[in-house]
Write a structure and sequence with these properties.
Order of helices and strands: HHHHHHH
Structural class: mainly alpha
Oligomer: single chain
Length: 116
Amino acid sequence: MQALTSEMAEQAPGSEVVAPRLAEVLFIQVLRAHIASGPERNKGWLRAVFDPQMGAALSAIHDRVNTPWTVESLAQAAGMSRSAFAARFKELLGQTPLEICNRVADAEGDAVTRTA
């Protein structure tokens, strides 16, 4: 925080490049602290996104909204067995993989409608 404050106060050459990067690092540190200190630090969207396997599945869902996902195909994207994937997904996110797929598709459809 002190380095960011100094960069913004001094306006030295290159500050316009350095300050945003320091702000990004600070933001990541705040997220990490939040995840680590929360009562449910091992659950939720942030935890799922940072989990390598769940993050891969969530990225696949968001990157390919129109794909007719199944639990099996998402498990493959995550590199897990179907049953282990389904259980872990529900544990972290509180919803099934297909419920999340539907929410993402609905949100995408709403976004398209708003921009049309």
